[in-house]
Amino acid sequence: MINDYEFQEIGKGTFGTVYLARSKNSDEKLALKVVERKRFCLAQRRKINNERKAWTTVSSHPHIVSLICYFKTNTSFCFVSDFVDGQDLSHYLENDGPFEEARVKIIGAQVASAIMYIHSRGIIHKDIGSNNVMLDKSKGAQLIDFGLCTVSSV
Fold it and tell me: Which of 4, 96, 127, 136 is the catalytic position?
């Protein structure tokens, strides 16, 4: 139930806002991406459906943030996903400086594994950059944001 969670904005982009959803009754944390609906905009619905289809298709990979569910309200499209306990690669490098070579190899291999997986599923991400690679404290690199992807049949 939505009333069982407290929400805190953790990111805002061109297309939507991301919130941390904390359970009031447990230690559970989720991420909620909210995209405001544009009235009578078929192109936006197609884009959202494309993102949902792509994310659902690849969310079982260990280095892709898992999509838990998707729902619509009267005003928004909402994606609920695992919460990444960390920061994106851009912020990490700005705040903490460069990685040691061994860590770069691990992160690079994790991201390459995620990219090869999504390509094998007929999806091209089209927005891979340091701001769309999250560094989770326990899971390592996590690829996010399928809003600009292309889905083809394999």
Answer: 127
Six-digit token string for 48: 């959202």
Does the active-site annotation cover 145? no
Lowest mean pLDDT among 1-5, 54-58, 137-141: 1-5
Provide the H-helix boundaries in the chain.
Answer: 42-58, 89-96, 101-120
DSSP structural state of residue 98: P
Give the span between the Cα atoms of 55 and 52, in whole angstroms.
Answer: 5
Q: What is the pTM of this model?
A: 0.89
pLDDT in tens, 12-34: 877 889 999 999 989 899 999 99
Residues 6 or more apart in contact with residue 55 via CB below 8 angstroms: 67, 79, 81, 146
